[in-house]
Amino acid sequence: xxxxxxxxxxxxxxxxxxxxxxxxxxxxxxxxxxxxxxxxxxxxxxxxxxxxxxxxxxxxxxxxxxxxxxxxxxxxxxxxxxxxxxxxxxxxxxxxxxxxxxxxxxxxxxxxxxxxxxxxxxxxxxxxxxxxxxxxxxxxxxxxxxxxxxxxxxxxxxxxxxxxxxxxxxxxxxxxxxxxxxxxxxxxxxxxxxxxxxxxxxxxxxxxxxxxxxxxxxxxxxxxxxxxxxxxxxxxxxxxxxxxxxxxxxxxxxxxxxxxxxxxxxxxxxxxxxxxxxxxxxxxxxxxxxxxxxxxxxxxxxxxxxxxxxxxxxxxxxxxxxxxxxxxxxxxxxxxxxx
Length: 339
Ligand code: ASN
Ligand code: ZN
Ligand code: CA
Prior knowledge:
The protein is α+β, with helices and mostly antiparallel strands and about 350 residues long. It is built from 9 helices and 15 strands. Strands 4, 5, 6, 9, 10 and 11 form a 6-stranded mixed beta sheet that branches. Strands 7-3-2-1-8 form a 5-stranded mixed beta sheet, with helices on one face. Strand 1 (about 5-10) and strand 2 form a beta hairpin. It comes from Kribbella speibonae.
């Protein structure tokens, strides 16, 4: 019979981490029965055909990893299990974050875990949630290394949470809010992991990027050369990974306020679009307010103006209509030109 076991693994980005596994023929396998049976498998560098992507026909079947002694990986990508260690840890940490902090049982809210597959395609510089499973590329080692860092894992799986809550449409302003939701919770998962090798910060993808410090910067989104710091009419015409900048900037300023500080060893500097100074109410309250807004007030077509109202309603529910938290939400949206 199958038993659950606790092993450990040498990850690519998060040092040695505990892993929840199961006994299997030949030792152990990366199946986490304590978190709804989520498992991690090897995509063997195959890609999904168009038929697979559109209709689910002829999809390559990932193969399970096995390990004889339940000590996984080497911390370098030449060992195929190392990226799997990060992915399995990322899925477990994201599951725990939503359950512990928000009382949500997994991505779908039904207690089911999800499959993750690593080594997708060849030099594939992306990671994605397809509605059912996580997929991670190995990167090209020029722009990016393997895309299995905890903030990327939390970002992608949070797309699943968004899909099953507000279901923000992935274009226009709602698309920016969808992307920002993933950046916000990917970041809060990274902080929740409390991992010395990859401490929390408001950069997205700082562990994976090779040709720049990170993919995105929540303290000042325009640092990526493309993202918007402040709302303006037409921001919804940007790619959703850039229109997200307004909400990422809001989230950073709400939690941390203005001014220069070092977070997770990296420089951050919040400044407002209207010249105001903000103090920040902390990450935990940011997470509570954003999650309640997402799961209670936002809908598929929510705009930035409506996100302001949604988060104000959430803050009223959580802290009261006259609370400093609600006032901070109002002042912070105004600080990113959402009035
Ligand atoms: N990595 C991209 C993202 O999550 C892929 C996608 O699903 N658009 O934004
Ligand atoms: Zn995304
Ligand atoms: Ca990060």
